[in-house]
Structure formats: structure tokens, C-alpha cells
Prior knowledge:
By secondary structure, the protein is of the alpha+beta class.
Amino acid sequence: MFLVAKAHLWMPSTFTLGSPSNCASCEYRSLRMFCNLDDRALAEYSAMGTEARLPKGTILFDESAPSTNVFVLCTGQVKLFCTSKEGKTLILKIAMPGDVLGLGAVISGTPYEVTAETIQPTQVKSIRRDDFLAFLQRNSEAGLKAATSLSDDYKAAFFDARRLALSSSSAGRLAGVLLDWGRTAAACGKLEMRFTMALSHEDLASLVGSSRETVTRNLSQFKRDNLIQVRGSSILILAPKLLEQLAV
């Protein structure tokens, strides 16, 4: 159960409950690693936890708070970020449908490492820590999926750190992020590399280690060079190979 009022933390008393999803009939099941379990394990997983539809600005969990739940993202996007004592914010990742949030903290029994906040209307499945760990113990396939998910998180963090440290230009870092999102959209069965940009230019600058003005200037240049097409919040990758050359 979780709170859906904007800019508030998840609470057990108020939430918006959506209709229970039938994971077995989900059209994206085969594309989402943790949801793609055998029939028996999937039936047990489907019956676990609570589902909710959340508005933009809902905080699923807060940095340094006790890890009480894992959250599986069904639709929408969630930004993961940390904040320094001085109030400076660093966005680490934009979670997409199929991602499991809070997994590492729940398995290790440590506080959440980051804050998770929805950046667009989002549907999530929340599972209590004890229930989730018991589920992993009963289902070896689910345990392997969880281990693979943690491995993927590690690799993503490594590549992001390498991009920030070694990319020679802010344009290259931005190109790499746009390509990642475009490839994720294509992997979800879309015919083109189109995705919704739910971040502000300021948040995007935090993600790529740049300034808002530089991000705005780079996006405008990408549009002029016909590398991307922007219509409102929708971005279409027109020239992925050219963007990849920038990102190297």
C-alpha cells in the first residue's frame, strides 16, 4: 500500500488501488526479465503484494530509510537519485517498466541507497521484504532472476560511471543517455526508437553531469542536425549511428 499524494512518501494508509494485473497475459512479459517466470512461480508472484497507480511526484522510498519493500515497475518511469548534505542532487538512473526497485537493499537488509520518485503516472507492484525473500527461497528461478537483475544494475552503474568520467563532451554524454532510452523503447516491441522525455532539462543535466543551458543547447543542435525529432515530450531517434559516434 502506498501514498499517492504528490511529493509525499509511501504510507500504508492511503493509496490508489488499480485492478489486479494478470501477469500471465501481459504483452510485455517475455521482455521483462523478472516477470518472465514459469507458470507456477508467476502465479505465486501475481498473487503477492499490492498494486497501485501513482501520479507524478510520488516518492516510493527515501534514501537511508529502512528497506521494507521491493517495487516492480509495470508502467511509467521513476527517477532514482541521492542528495548531499548541502542539498545537491545527483540523478543516478531513470527506471523503466520491468525494473525492480530496492532489490539490493531488501536482499542485503540495509537501508535504501537512493530516493525513488515517479516522474510520470506510474503503475507499480509493491511486495513486502519478508514475503519477497520467502518467495525467492521457494523459487530457484526467481532467485536467479533477482541475481541477474542485480548484475544488470551493477553493469549499468559501471557504464554510467565510465560515460561520466571518460566521455570527452557533454554532447557525447547526452547522446549516450538518449540512445539508451531509445534502445529500451525498441526492446519493448516498438517499431522505432521513440520514448517520452519525462525529465526537465535541469534533471537531465544532473543525469549527464552538465548544466541545464548546455543540455538545452545540445538538444537544439541534435534537432538541427536531424539526429532526433522532438514533438512535445516525445523524442524519436532518427540517426542512432551518428549519436553513437558522438557517445564514444
